[in-house]
Specification:
21% of the residues lie in helices and 38% in strands. The protein is α+β, with helices and mostly antiparallel strands. It starts with a helix and ends in a 16-residue tail after the last strand.
């Protein structure tokens, strides 16, 4: 299996692991997988009492053979979990950091 297909599987499996809905409210998890355009997202949708809940929890893209962490709204270290799954640091971009700060993260710049 080539590297990008392996990354697609890793990212999809990771989203499934993260997909437990919150313990409060009437909220469900939606996993959005677009392997054609390499967009992967976990979103919460529902209601917490009278407050509408709708938004991304985790958003990852595969761009030029690297996994870009666009958004991590969890308290879990998604980049470390990608590493544990076999993704090298040089193939992980913490895109939520400004480009000029990315060299300080120890991960890929872009």
């Amino acid at each position: 299996m080539d590297r990008v297909n392996r990354y697609r599987e890793i990212v999809t499996d990771l989203l499934k692991e993260y997909s437990a809905p919150p313990s409060h409210g009437d909220i469900r998890s939606e996993i959005i997988v677009d392997p054609v355009n390499d967009h992967y997202e976990l979103t919460y949708v529902g209601w917490d009492r009278h407050r509408r809940v709708h938004g991304p929890v985790l958003h990852l893209d595969i761009i030029d053979g690297k996994i870009w962490v666009q958004h991590n709204g969890t308290d879990r270290p998604v980049a470390r979990e990608l590493e544990a799954a076999g993704v090298p640091r040089e193939d992980i971009v913490l895109a939520f950091h400004p480009r000029e700060d990315r060299p300080l993260t120890g991960y890929a710049v872009g």
